[in-house]
Amino acid sequence: MEQAAALGVSPDRVQRACAVGLLVRVGRGWYAVDTGNTVAGLDVASRGRLHALGARESDVVLCGTSAAAVWGLPLPPGLADVRRLEVLAQDPDAPWGGRRRYETVRRWQASGAFVVEGPHGGRLTDPLQTAIDLGRGLPLPFALVALDAAMALSQQFGLPPEVVRDLLEERAAAARRGRGLRGVLEATAYADPRAESPLESIVRGRIIEAGLPTPAVQVNVTGVSGRPYRADLGMRIAGDPPGTTRLLIEADGLGKYGDASDLAEEKRRQHDLERNGHPVVRVLYGEAVHAPVNFIGAVATIIAGG
Q: Which of 151, 245, 256, 144 is nearest to 194 (CA)?
């Protein structure tokens, strides 16, 4: 506000500029101009805070939920609040730090190897490192949400699958002594870029967490009609030939069925598959996140041949 007064801009003009979106109120007496193109994954207020923070501190790197917003990575359950701007303190002796009202400074180990230029400018942790950071302190199923998506995004950038896998394992090994990394480090061994939704990642993680065999991802199957389908997950049933995936598991997210016709088609699909010997277990989001015991019990019974 002092700078605005020095430029002859009255408090009323500042307030009007905020009202029409030309300025963003970052804090008490603290305003920023929102250019709208620095980090498209963040909301207007967060972009404003980033501009102001960058003007105040020269060594700013987005990380955590803020970096995930830029990359478009899904957030694991419990991390949906991105109102705080998360930045990385690369210099351990930097005078700024701790948890402020408008940003959270993470003093995680910062290597220049995983800090990159963002797609819309600004520096941030790359997708793989961002996913590892998001998984800190989370159980394996939730850590897989970001890890699966980060691997897929890295492949979209042109990296071969084997290179992405090697990079993820190297990052996990380098971060082995970090706080809250037990679950996410275990999850790196099971991360799979073929997962098509956060719910699918959670369901797969719940099955692994329960000590059952790791499900196959995106399984091609055929109904009794001869029509081909693709299931989210598949598992072998005891007594079946090795490598087969007769049990099918579908992650039923809210956006999977657009209208009644989609639901009717899904019922026809399931009937077609079941008549061809494929039992189907369907899992809803709330069940996977909060009460997995029921579907885990059904899966365990079926794969045991029960």
A: 151
